[in-house]
Amino acid sequence: MLQALLTERFQLKVHRETQTGSVYLLERSGKKFLLHSTKYTEDEPVMGAPGFSGEIEHARGHWFLFNASLPQLAKYASTYVLHKPVIDQTGLEGSFDYRDPDVKIEQDNGDFEAAFTVFIRDIGLKLTPSKGPVESLVIEHAEKPTAN
Fold first, then answer.
1. Is residue 146, in this structure, part of any structural domain at all?
2. In this structure, is residue 24 part of a structural domain?
3. 54-75: buried (b, 16+ CB within 10 Å) or exposed (e) per residue?
4. Could you tell me if residue 89 is inside a domain?
5. Tens of pLDDT along 71-92?
6. How far separated are the first and last CA of the chain, in Å rounded?
7. How far apart are alpha carbons 113 and 131 in whole angstroms?
8. Could you tell me how far CA 62 lies from the centroid of its own chain?
9. Which pLDDT band, with edges at 50, 70 and 90, does 57 fall under?
10. Is residue 55 included in any domain, yes or no?
11. pLDDT band for position 105 (50/70/90)?
């Protein structure tokens, strides 16, 4: 709906382009893998909601994953932490839990990216800088809107 409004109001014309740019690869590190397969069943829904699609949470220096896939973890890292595309290269399928409130991740509360990177390392994964496909939105044409 918003796209239609912008297209009409500004005579907006856009297209998507994929170019090679900076990305991160989410990979196995060779360390012990600490994520556990989710014990979700239809009889025992995670977080009380059937079909729950996963949650990644950071609270007071602790990280928690509930019914989250590694592609979801990569999307979370891309959107909320690194602000660059993160491509899941682990080859691991399924959903995972990580609930270890006894392990305190030492961190500077102001450096969310560093805390996340430590968490990734501690659970047996790594983020490797690389080059890969980056999608962008290209504005072809826009006009100043007329008065209402």
1. no
2. yes
3. bebebeeebbebbbbbbbbbbb
4. yes
5. 999 999 999 899 999 999 999 9
6. 19
7. 20
8. 17
9. low
10. yes
11. very low
